[in-house]
Amino acid sequence: MNVSTLADQMANLAYAFRGYNTTNLGRSYELLKHPSYGPVVEAKLHQAARCCETITGKSYDLVKRLEQQQETDLESYDEAVALIVAMELAQIELLEVFFDIHPQAGRLCFGYSLGEIVALTVCGVLTMEDALSVPISLAEDCVALAEDVTLGILLSRKTPLSVEDVQRGCLQINAEGNGVVGPSAFLSPNSILLMGQYDTLDRLQSWLKENHPGRTSLRKNKQKWPPLHTPIVWERQIPDRAAYLMHTLSGGFSTPQPPLLSMVTGKMSYHDHNARELLHQWVDHPQRLWDVVYEVLSSNIETIVHVGPKPNIIPSTFQRLRDNVESQTENSIGMRALSAAVSRPWLQSILPERLALLRAPLIDLYVHCAKAMAQPVPAGER
Protein backbone atom coordinates (compact mmCIF):
# COMPACT_ATOMS: atom_id res chain seq x y z
CA MET A 1 0.00 0.00 0.00
CA ASN A 2 1.21 3.51 -0.84
CA VAL A 3 1.02 6.17 1.89
CA SER A 4 -1.26 8.35 -0.23
CA THR A 5 -3.89 5.58 -0.40
CA LEU A 6 -4.33 5.58 3.38
CA ALA A 7 -6.82 8.43 3.07
CA ASP A 8 -9.31 5.97 1.60
CA GLN A 9 -8.98 3.65 4.63
CA MET A 10 -9.61 6.11 7.48
CA ALA A 11 -12.98 4.75 8.60
CA ASN A 12 -11.39 1.42 9.52
CA LEU A 13 -7.83 2.49 10.23
CA ALA A 14 -5.85 2.33 13.48
CA TYR A 15 -2.58 4.01 14.41
CA ALA A 16 -0.05 2.05 16.48
CA PHE A 17 2.83 3.81 18.24
CA ARG A 18 5.93 1.93 19.32
CA GLY A 19 7.87 2.37 22.54
CA TYR A 20 11.49 2.26 23.63
CA ASN A 21 13.80 -0.42 22.24
CA THR A 22 17.52 -1.14 22.24
CA THR A 23 17.66 0.39 18.74
CA ASN A 24 15.76 3.62 18.18
CA LEU A 25 17.08 5.37 15.06
CA GLY A 26 15.45 3.26 12.34
CA ARG A 27 14.73 5.33 9.22
CA SER A 28 14.88 8.65 11.10
CA TYR A 29 18.11 9.77 9.42
CA GLU A 30 16.54 9.37 5.98
CA LEU A 31 13.53 11.44 6.98
CA LEU A 32 15.79 14.14 8.41
CA LYS A 33 17.78 14.32 5.17
CA HIS A 34 14.72 14.15 2.92
CA PRO A 35 14.56 17.37 0.83
CA SER A 36 10.88 17.98 1.62
CA TYR A 37 10.37 16.28 4.99
CA GLY A 38 13.63 17.34 6.61
CA PRO A 39 12.51 20.76 7.93
CA VAL A 40 9.48 19.24 9.67
CA VAL A 41 11.61 16.53 11.27
CA GLU A 42 14.32 18.97 12.33
CA ALA A 43 11.78 21.33 13.91
CA LYS A 44 10.28 18.50 15.96
CA LEU A 45 13.71 17.34 17.13
CA HIS A 46 14.61 20.88 18.22
CA GLN A 47 11.26 21.24 20.01
CA ALA A 48 11.78 17.97 21.92
CA ALA A 49 15.34 18.98 22.82
CA ARG A 50 14.12 22.31 24.24
CA CYS A 51 11.48 20.50 26.30
CA CYS A 52 14.11 18.16 27.76
CA GLU A 53 16.46 21.03 28.52
CA THR A 54 13.70 22.79 30.45
CA ILE A 55 12.98 19.61 32.42
CA THR A 56 16.54 18.53 33.27
CA GLY A 57 18.73 21.59 32.78
CA LYS A 58 20.98 19.51 30.51
CA SER A 59 21.86 20.27 26.89
CA TYR A 60 20.39 18.05 24.14
CA ASP A 61 21.22 17.92 20.43
CA LEU A 62 18.95 15.31 18.85
CA VAL A 63 19.64 16.60 15.34
CA LYS A 64 23.36 16.04 15.78
CA ARG A 65 22.75 12.50 17.10
CA LEU A 66 20.73 11.68 13.99
CA GLU A 67 23.19 13.32 11.62
CA GLN A 68 25.98 11.24 13.13
CA GLN A 69 23.68 8.20 13.14
CA GLN A 70 24.67 7.59 16.74
CA GLU A 71 22.41 4.89 18.19
CA THR A 72 21.04 5.34 21.71
CA ASP A 73 21.92 3.10 24.64
CA LEU A 74 20.91 2.77 28.27
CA GLU A 75 23.15 5.67 29.29
CA SER A 76 21.36 7.93 26.80
CA TYR A 77 17.88 6.64 27.71
CA ASP A 78 16.50 10.16 28.15
CA GLU A 79 17.66 11.06 24.63
CA ALA A 80 16.11 7.86 23.30
CA VAL A 81 12.77 8.84 24.86
CA ALA A 82 12.95 12.33 23.39
CA LEU A 83 13.99 10.99 19.99
CA ILE A 84 11.12 8.48 19.82
CA VAL A 85 8.52 11.06 20.85
CA ALA A 86 9.85 13.64 18.40
CA MET A 87 10.09 11.26 15.45
CA GLU A 88 6.64 9.76 15.97
CA LEU A 89 5.05 13.20 16.21
CA ALA A 90 7.05 14.26 13.14
CA GLN A 91 5.73 11.31 11.16
CA ILE A 92 2.17 12.24 12.07
CA GLU A 93 2.78 15.84 10.98
CA LEU A 94 4.26 14.61 7.69
CA LEU A 95 1.14 12.55 7.05
CA GLU A 96 -1.01 15.62 7.69
CA VAL A 97 1.03 18.17 5.73
CA PHE A 98 2.11 16.15 2.70
CA PHE A 99 -0.66 13.56 2.35
CA ASP A 100 -3.71 15.22 3.99
CA ILE A 101 -4.04 12.20 6.30
CA HIS A 102 -5.24 13.18 9.78
CA PRO A 103 -5.24 10.73 12.70
CA GLN A 104 -8.38 12.30 14.15
CA ALA A 105 -10.31 10.86 11.20
CA GLY A 106 -9.15 7.33 12.03
CA ARG A 107 -11.04 4.71 14.02
CA LEU A 108 -8.67 4.43 17.00
CA CYS A 109 -5.11 4.72 18.33
CA PHE A 110 -3.00 2.62 20.67
CA GLY A 111 0.61 2.55 21.77
CA TYR A 112 2.95 0.16 23.53
CA SER A 113 4.72 1.58 26.61
CA LEU A 114 6.11 5.02 25.65
CA GLY A 115 3.99 4.84 22.50
CA GLU A 116 0.84 5.36 24.58
CA ILE A 117 2.15 8.71 25.79
CA VAL A 118 2.84 9.74 22.19
CA ALA A 119 -0.67 8.59 21.25
CA LEU A 120 -2.13 10.82 23.98
CA THR A 121 -0.39 13.76 22.30
CA VAL A 122 -1.61 12.80 18.83
CA CYS A 123 -5.16 12.39 20.19
CA GLY A 124 -5.14 15.91 21.62
CA VAL A 125 -4.93 15.07 25.33
CA LEU A 126 -1.32 16.17 26.05
CA THR A 127 1.17 18.60 24.59
CA MET A 128 4.66 17.42 23.68
CA GLU A 129 5.94 19.21 26.79
CA ASP A 130 3.47 17.32 29.00
CA ALA A 131 4.21 14.04 27.26
CA LEU A 132 7.95 14.33 27.87
CA SER A 133 7.82 15.71 31.41
CA VAL A 134 7.21 12.44 33.28
CA PRO A 135 9.48 9.97 31.41
CA ILE A 136 12.34 12.49 31.13
CA SER A 137 12.10 13.57 34.78
CA LEU A 138 12.28 9.95 35.94
CA ALA A 139 14.71 8.64 33.31
CA GLU A 140 17.82 8.81 35.52
CA ASP A 141 16.26 6.65 38.24
CA CYS A 142 14.86 4.19 35.68
CA VAL A 143 18.36 3.77 34.24
CA ALA A 144 19.87 3.26 37.71
CA LEU A 145 17.34 0.51 38.47
CA ALA A 146 18.06 -1.19 35.13
CA GLU A 147 21.62 -2.07 36.17
CA ASP A 148 20.40 -4.94 38.38
CA VAL A 149 17.43 -6.01 36.23
CA THR A 150 17.15 -8.88 33.75
CA LEU A 151 14.39 -9.12 31.15
CA GLY A 152 12.97 -12.50 30.22
CA ILE A 153 10.05 -13.94 28.27
CA LEU A 154 8.14 -16.75 29.93
CA LEU A 155 6.76 -19.17 27.34
CA SER A 156 4.36 -22.09 27.34
CA ARG A 157 4.19 -24.11 24.12
CA LYS A 158 1.22 -26.37 24.82
CA THR A 159 -1.18 -24.61 27.14
CA PRO A 160 -1.96 -20.98 27.93
CA LEU A 161 -0.05 -19.48 30.83
CA SER A 162 -2.04 -18.87 33.98
CA VAL A 163 -1.56 -15.21 34.84
CA GLU A 164 -2.66 -15.95 38.39
CA ASP A 165 -0.03 -18.69 38.77
CA VAL A 166 2.72 -16.43 37.44
CA GLN A 167 1.68 -13.56 39.67
CA ARG A 168 1.53 -15.94 42.66
CA GLY A 169 5.02 -17.13 41.84
CA CYS A 170 6.30 -13.55 41.68
CA LEU A 171 4.78 -12.80 45.08
CA GLN A 172 6.43 -15.90 46.54
CA ILE A 173 9.86 -14.93 45.19
CA ASN A 174 9.48 -11.31 46.29
CA ALA A 175 8.56 -12.49 49.81
CA GLU A 176 11.89 -14.33 50.02
CA GLY A 177 13.76 -11.02 49.84
CA ASN A 178 16.80 -10.10 47.76
CA GLY A 179 15.02 -8.55 44.81
CA VAL A 180 11.68 -8.05 43.12
CA VAL A 181 10.29 -9.72 39.98
CA GLY A 182 7.07 -8.99 38.13
CA PRO A 183 5.30 -9.10 34.76
CA SER A 184 5.94 -6.11 32.50
CA ALA A 185 3.66 -7.14 29.61
CA PHE A 186 1.15 -9.84 28.74
CA LEU A 187 2.18 -10.50 25.16
CA SER A 188 -0.12 -13.43 24.31
CA PRO A 189 -1.90 -16.31 26.07
CA ASN A 190 1.39 -18.26 26.13
CA SER A 191 4.00 -15.52 26.59
CA ILE A 192 4.61 -13.03 29.40
CA LEU A 193 7.42 -10.48 29.51
CA LEU A 194 9.03 -10.43 32.98
CA MET A 195 11.61 -8.21 34.65
CA GLY A 196 13.48 -9.26 37.75
CA GLN A 197 16.26 -7.96 39.97
CA TYR A 198 19.38 -10.01 40.67
CA ASP A 199 18.58 -13.76 40.43
CA THR A 200 14.80 -13.45 40.85
CA LEU A 201 14.05 -14.68 37.31
CA ASP A 202 16.03 -17.88 37.99
CA ARG A 203 14.24 -18.40 41.29
CA LEU A 204 10.87 -17.80 39.64
CA GLN A 205 11.69 -20.33 36.93
CA SER A 206 12.60 -22.91 39.59
CA TRP A 207 9.38 -22.18 41.47
CA LEU A 208 7.31 -22.62 38.31
CA LYS A 209 9.04 -25.91 37.43
CA GLU A 210 8.38 -27.21 40.92
CA ASN A 211 4.75 -26.12 41.04
CA HIS A 212 3.87 -26.45 37.32
CA PRO A 213 6.37 -28.95 35.88
CA GLY A 214 6.83 -29.19 32.13
CA ARG A 215 4.67 -26.22 31.29
CA THR A 216 7.02 -23.26 30.93
CA SER A 217 10.40 -22.11 29.66
CA LEU A 218 12.24 -18.81 30.17
CA ARG A 219 14.27 -16.89 27.59
CA LYS A 220 16.49 -14.18 29.01
CA ASN A 221 17.54 -11.04 27.17
CA LYS A 222 21.14 -9.87 27.56
CA GLN A 223 20.26 -6.18 27.17
CA LYS A 224 19.52 -3.93 30.14
CA TRP A 225 16.05 -2.38 30.20
CA PRO A 226 14.45 0.27 32.44
CA PRO A 227 11.95 -1.75 34.56
CA LEU A 228 8.84 0.27 33.76
CA HIS A 229 5.43 -1.37 34.18
CA THR A 230 6.70 -3.52 37.09
CA PRO A 231 6.76 -3.15 40.90
CA ILE A 232 10.55 -2.69 40.70
CA VAL A 233 9.95 1.04 40.14
CA TRP A 234 8.51 1.27 43.67
CA GLU A 235 12.06 1.08 45.02
CA ARG A 236 12.67 4.71 44.04
CA GLN A 237 9.07 5.89 44.53
CA ILE A 238 8.80 6.47 40.79
CA PRO A 239 4.98 5.98 40.59
CA ASP A 240 4.33 8.46 43.42
CA ARG A 241 6.69 11.03 41.92
CA ALA A 242 5.08 10.48 38.52
CA ALA A 243 1.64 11.05 40.05
CA TYR A 244 2.78 14.35 41.54
CA LEU A 245 4.30 15.46 38.22
CA MET A 246 1.16 14.51 36.30
CA HIS A 247 -1.04 16.58 38.59
CA THR A 248 0.93 19.66 37.52
CA LEU A 249 0.41 19.05 33.79
CA SER A 250 -1.42 21.75 31.87
CA GLY A 251 -3.39 19.28 29.73
CA GLY A 252 -5.23 16.03 30.27
CA PHE A 253 -8.80 17.34 30.17
CA SER A 254 -9.83 16.24 26.68
CA THR A 255 -11.40 13.05 25.43
CA PRO A 256 -8.96 11.40 22.99
CA GLN A 257 -9.87 11.80 19.34
CA PRO A 258 -9.79 9.26 17.85
CA PRO A 259 -10.52 6.98 20.82
CA LEU A 260 -7.42 5.57 22.50
CA LEU A 261 -6.95 2.06 23.85
CA SER A 262 -5.18 1.86 27.21
CA MET A 263 -2.45 -0.76 27.66
CA VAL A 264 -3.17 -0.59 31.40
CA THR A 265 -6.75 -1.81 31.05
CA GLY A 266 -6.78 -3.28 27.53
CA LYS A 267 -9.93 -1.23 26.88
CA MET A 268 -11.14 2.16 25.63
CA SER A 269 -10.79 3.58 29.13
CA TYR A 270 -9.78 7.19 28.53
CA HIS A 271 -12.34 9.95 28.95
CA ASP A 272 -12.16 13.71 29.49
CA HIS A 273 -10.41 13.79 32.88
CA ASN A 274 -8.78 10.44 33.76
CA ALA A 275 -5.53 10.63 31.79
CA ARG A 276 -3.56 11.34 34.96
CA GLU A 277 -5.03 8.34 36.75
CA LEU A 278 -4.33 5.95 33.87
CA LEU A 279 -0.81 7.28 33.34
CA HIS A 280 -0.12 6.85 37.05
CA GLN A 281 -1.06 3.17 36.64
CA TRP A 282 0.93 3.01 33.39
CA VAL A 283 4.17 3.48 35.35
CA ASP A 284 3.97 0.22 37.35
CA HIS A 285 1.17 -1.84 35.76
CA PRO A 286 1.90 -4.51 33.09
CA GLN A 287 1.11 -3.69 29.48
CA ARG A 288 -1.95 -5.70 28.36
CA LEU A 289 -0.87 -6.03 24.75
CA TRP A 290 -2.91 -9.15 24.04
CA ASP A 291 -6.13 -7.55 25.30
CA VAL A 292 -5.44 -4.53 23.08
CA VAL A 293 -4.83 -6.80 20.08
CA TYR A 294 -8.23 -8.38 20.68
CA GLU A 295 -9.95 -5.00 21.00
CA VAL A 296 -8.37 -3.80 17.74
CA LEU A 297 -9.51 -6.90 15.86
CA SER A 298 -13.00 -6.80 17.37
CA SER A 299 -13.37 -3.16 16.24
CA ASN A 300 -13.37 -4.26 12.57
CA ILE A 301 -10.09 -2.47 11.90
CA GLU A 302 -8.85 -3.23 8.39
CA THR A 303 -5.54 -1.30 8.31
CA ILE A 304 -2.96 -0.65 11.02
CA VAL A 305 -0.38 2.09 10.47
CA HIS A 306 2.74 1.58 12.56
CA VAL A 307 4.28 4.91 13.59
CA GLY A 308 7.87 4.95 14.84
CA PRO A 309 11.52 4.72 13.83
CA LYS A 310 11.22 1.02 12.92
CA PRO A 311 8.70 -1.76 13.62
CA ASN A 312 9.03 -3.86 16.76
CA ILE A 313 6.68 -5.60 19.15
CA ILE A 314 3.28 -4.46 17.82
CA PRO A 315 3.59 -5.55 14.16
CA SER A 316 5.45 -8.71 15.17
CA THR A 317 2.58 -9.66 17.51
CA PHE A 318 -0.04 -9.18 14.79
CA GLN A 319 2.12 -11.02 12.24
CA ARG A 320 2.66 -13.97 14.59
CA LEU A 321 -1.08 -14.19 15.25
CA ARG A 322 -1.77 -13.95 11.53
CA ASP A 323 0.66 -16.79 10.76
CA ASN A 324 -0.82 -18.97 13.50
CA VAL A 325 -4.40 -18.44 12.34
CA GLU A 326 -3.50 -19.19 8.73
CA SER A 327 -1.58 -22.34 9.62
CA GLN A 328 -4.30 -23.65 11.93
CA THR A 329 -7.18 -22.95 9.55
CA GLU A 330 -5.48 -24.00 6.30
CA ASN A 331 -7.75 -26.19 4.16
CA SER A 332 -10.42 -26.13 6.85
CA ILE A 333 -12.09 -22.72 6.72
CA GLY A 334 -11.68 -19.89 4.23
CA MET A 335 -10.95 -16.26 4.97
CA ARG A 336 -14.35 -15.24 3.59
CA ALA A 337 -16.06 -17.56 6.07
CA LEU A 338 -13.93 -16.22 8.92
CA SER A 339 -14.79 -12.66 7.97
CA ALA A 340 -18.50 -13.45 7.91
CA ALA A 341 -18.37 -15.18 11.28
CA VAL A 342 -16.55 -12.30 12.95
CA SER A 343 -18.63 -9.46 11.50
CA ARG A 344 -22.15 -10.82 12.02
CA PRO A 345 -23.61 -10.09 15.49
CA TRP A 346 -25.89 -13.15 15.57
CA LEU A 347 -22.89 -15.42 15.00
CA GLN A 348 -20.82 -13.57 17.57
CA SER A 349 -23.46 -14.26 20.20
CA ILE A 350 -23.14 -18.04 19.86
CA LEU A 351 -19.44 -18.41 19.08
CA PRO A 352 -16.46 -18.08 21.48
CA GLU A 353 -15.82 -14.66 23.01
CA ARG A 354 -12.43 -14.11 21.37
CA LEU A 355 -13.52 -15.12 17.89
CA ALA A 356 -12.35 -11.72 16.60
CA LEU A 357 -8.73 -12.89 16.90
CA LEU A 358 -9.37 -14.97 13.78
CA ARG A 359 -9.55 -11.70 11.82
CA ALA A 360 -5.77 -11.31 12.03
CA PRO A 361 -5.13 -12.54 8.43
CA LEU A 362 -7.60 -9.95 7.14
CA ILE A 363 -5.65 -6.98 8.55
CA ASP A 364 -3.54 -4.89 6.19
CA LEU A 365 -0.56 -4.39 8.48
CA TYR A 366 1.07 -1.27 7.10
CA VAL A 367 4.01 -1.60 9.41
CA HIS A 368 6.62 0.79 8.13
CA CYS A 369 5.31 4.32 7.85
CA ALA A 370 8.84 5.78 8.17
CA LYS A 371 10.21 3.55 5.42
CA ALA A 372 7.42 4.49 3.03
CA MET A 373 7.75 8.20 3.69
CA ALA A 374 11.53 8.09 3.25
CA GLN A 375 10.87 7.64 -0.48
CA PRO A 376 10.68 10.70 -2.78
CA VAL A 377 7.54 12.80 -2.49
CA PRO A 378 5.23 12.45 -5.50
CA ALA A 379 5.42 15.59 -7.66
CA GLY A 380 1.80 16.55 -7.04
CA GLU A 381 2.18 16.33 -3.24
CA ARG A 382 5.15 18.67 -2.67
Write a structural description:
The protein has 382 residues and is an alpha/beta fold. The chain has helices spanning 28-32, 38-56, 62-67, 77-99, 114-122, 128-137, 139-146, 163-175, 200-211, 238-246, 275-284, 289-298, 313-329, 335-343, 345-348, 369-373; strands spanning 13-17, 108-111, 149-155, 181-188, 191-197, 217-221, 303-307, 364-366. The protein has a 4-stranded parallel sheet. Strands 4-5-3-6 form a 4-stranded antiparallel sheet. A hairpin with a 2-residue loop joins strand 4 and strand 5 (191-197). Helix 4 runs parallel beside helix 5. The longest helix has 23 residues, at 77-99. The two termini are 20 Å apart. The model has no long low-confidence stretch (mean pLDDT 89).
General form: globular
Strand arrangement within the widest β-sheet reads: 2-1-7-8
| SSE ordering | EHHHHEHHHEHEEHEHHHEHHHEH
CATH topology of the largest domain: Malonyl-Coenzyme A Acyl Carrier Protein, domain 2
* Computed Rg: 21 Å
How much helical structure, as a percent, in the residues?
40-55%
Q: Which superfamily, in CATH terms, is the homologous superfamily of the largest domain?
A: Malonyl-Coenzyme A Acyl Carrier Protein, domain 2
Counted up, domains total 2
Biggest pleated-sheet summary: 4 strands, parallel
Number of helices: 16
Low-confidence stretches: none
